[in-house]
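Exercise 7. Given the components listed, write out the predicted structure of the assembled complex. Treat all entries as one system.
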Amino acid sequence: MSPEQTSLLQGTLDLLILKSLVSGEMHGLGISRRVQQITGGTFVVKPGSLFPALHRMDEEGWISSFWGDSENNRRAKYYRLTKAGTKQLEVETRRWSRISWAIAQALEAS
Amino acid sequence: MPLFVKARSFLRNLFLSRGVEAELDREVHSHLELLIAENIRAGMTPREAERAARVELGGIEQVKEDVREQQMGNWLRSVFSDCRYGLRQLRKNLGATAVMVFTLALAIGATTAIFSVVYGVLLRPLPYAGANRIMAVFEVTSTGRPSRLADPNFDDFRDQNRSFQAVAKYADGVVSVSGASEPTRTTVAAVTPDFLKVFGVQPILGRDFSAGDAKKGAERTVLVSYGYWRQHLGTTQDFSESHLKIDGAVYSVIGVLPLGFRFPADVDLWLPADLDGENPSRTSHNYSAVGRLREGVTVQQANMDISTIARRIHDASSEQGDYLLKDGMVVPLQDSITGNARSALLVLLGAVGFLLLVACANVANLLLAQASVRERELAIRSALGAARGRLVRQFLTESLLLSLAGGGLGVLGALGGVVGLVRLAPENLPRLESVSISIPVLVFAFLLSTAVAAGLGAFTAARATSGDPRKGLGEGGRGQAGSQGSQRVGRVIVAAQIAITLVLVVGAGLFGRSLMKVLEVNPGFRVDKIIAMDVSLPWVEDPKAKAGEAAFFLNLMDRLKQIPGVRQVGAASALPMDGGLPDGMFLLMTQEEVPKTPDDFGALLKQKERIGEADFCVATDGYFQVLGIPLIRGRIFDRRDGANAPHVAVISESLARDRWPKQDPIGHTIEFGNMDGDLRLLTIVGIVGDTHENGLELPPRPTVYVNLFQRPRPAITVTMLSDADAGSVSSAARGILQDLDPEIPTRFRTLSEVFSASLGSRRFNVILIGFFGLTALLLATAGVFGVMAYSVSRRTREIGVRVALGADSGDVLRMILGQGLRTIFAGVAMGIIGSLALTRTVETLLFGVTATDPLTFGGVTVLLIAVALLACYVPARRATKVDPLVALRYE
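Answer.
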């Protein structure tokens, strides 16, 4: 793990998982790797945070799950975005944009 | 939609938990395999790949637990598992569990039972619509006490107030009623027309009083209670033919009141007041008053309103003197009904609360002992990743199970206890009929159990999880070091327990000593072997018929004397200790000074030196002999005192002493006609001993006795001194009365019943607080015993070493007893300080002892130390029997 990896900010994990599922259904490890990839390796999601988050979001109805075969023919549980999840992603995205804009403003002000 | 998904997840987690669990397991394992595969692809050997994967995953069980924490309904499931686990724990120590449940059941049951009385009497709203707006209205006397109302004053209150929607006055009494069935002694109330409007009650049948029914000379009408209607009128729907003969006059029934409406207590018939006109005096206080506040008017506003009117009356009235009102007062009816019972009931509630604390202390100690055995288990659980909160919750769950079981059992016990309490309760405790295990009482019991559980659980959890889990693991199975701390806590609990018990037993002692002191008071009359027979003739106005009353009673008493076993017969207007006699002001005057006009009377009443104040009792000479009231000087009534002879009076010793301090009252004449309307002067002919007319706890009342044969009255109580059994004398007497006039109702009691009822509330308090004190004492003894026995068993090895090193059994005994004594003394010291502070609050309920009575304090302290030492001695003896060889092998 590189020292640049940052611990996930509260609330960002959901956003990142939703975002990574936009490109299609994925199993847990896939999501974890995808998050790592799209954040340029800044965020690494460990199973201890990933699975609870997945189950929570499943129960919220943002994602749904099914069992499928992995690329090398192993059974794995796959997740996909639901309609509610897509909406949630929009909400989270807007919220996050506002926060990051606000933080950027704050930092620019001297 | 999301709500639906959530609900589905919740139910699935709850009911299909096995499937959810299995899927989770598969998912985590597949993740692990994917990780391994990834690592192998990256070029690791299978072993390296697996190890790296496991490191990244970070513990399969922990990941699963993290997910479970997130799952909806997880808390509920974990509560179930806590309960299952808790039940298993409780079953494992079945003996201790039974003791704890029983202890809690006893304490929660007792508290619930007492609370049901407190709730029923003090808290439960009166059963009327808008009951909180119903007020009692009083005049306030010159001494600042609330009193009943005089007719013109009531009229002014009614007409001038701006606070009340309706105001009514009422007066109740027992009269003879016939016409419906056999003659009965029935409680009736004379009321003004708005009476039912005050209570928001309407007849279920017929009509309410109208203003016309109350006019002077109107046709006599009566409303009957539901019970009376059913019992005596055969639930007739048409009462055009229903007439009742009440006190000699005929009344038409006009309506039936709803079931349960009986105000004032025990009334069956309501009649319009003042059909013969009002009493114009502003100083004759004959009526109580109630009113319903207008919407939005507060008690304070009503109070000021009435007070203003009252002071205006005071300033304007031509009548003056101590008997004229000085002020007016408004009190919520509920408070005015329960006023006297309040302090005693709250003391009982406090006492039972103490008992509850003592019981909880015992349970806490038992739980603590168990927790220290479980230290190892807790250490393992927290090492495996159980959060502290989770362990605390486990303890809370266990204590909740315990106290709910105890509470449930306790409520069952309270169901029986309440019946017993109501039976034991003094007759004068108001609203006893509304005492029951009702919904609010059950809610109280539940909340109480929960509070007990929270307290016990939090306490044991705090104790048990405060240590370092590693220590628990390191101790090799026999937690000795850790238990040192919990033993110290156990001793603190026991000391507190002793302290609370001491307070309770001191309280019981003070109440017990008060009762003894009350019983030491000489009532001034004989109590045993006296049968009392209430007789009331119909009321007549005609003075000639009054002579007939005297003749009737003379005849009756002559015949009663013939009953075998009856030695003496007398009669008086009321029995002592049975509600009191009327009191009033009399005037010292001679025949020459008798005024010609009422105004001259007023002038005489202003001369303080002429005024005396006394109870007024109508009696026969036999009354003094039957009750054994001694003649001090002069004579009592005899044959000379016929109806036309000069009227005579006998006065009580205290009246003679206080009113005629340096004179002989015999031969003086007084005017006391305001009591019975006969204005003939009374010549004092004798002085008799004082009686505690209003109860042993109150000083004797100054009393003026007049002769029944000179001042006849329709209602008297005949007293018979009899060696024969009360039952047979009563039935013989009943036969004689029926022979004379079958229309006259009667009632029999023995004077000892009346006497004993007058001690009812005090006995009630003594029995209950005594019971609580005794129970607390037993519990505290068990607590001391438990803690000492536990301590000895924990110290077996140490004692063995000491014995092996040469300590003899005396040394061991001293060591153990010394340890116990320190605890006991600490508790006793705290208890004495607590008692000194707390007994002050019950000072007004004591009699003849001070709140700091040294005898009680000393006795209770000695008793408590002795009992506690005995409880220590048994385990201490066992400690001396420790065989060093066995003890050292004990590990």
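Discussion: Chain B has a mean pLDDT of 86. Residues 2-72 of chain B form one domain.
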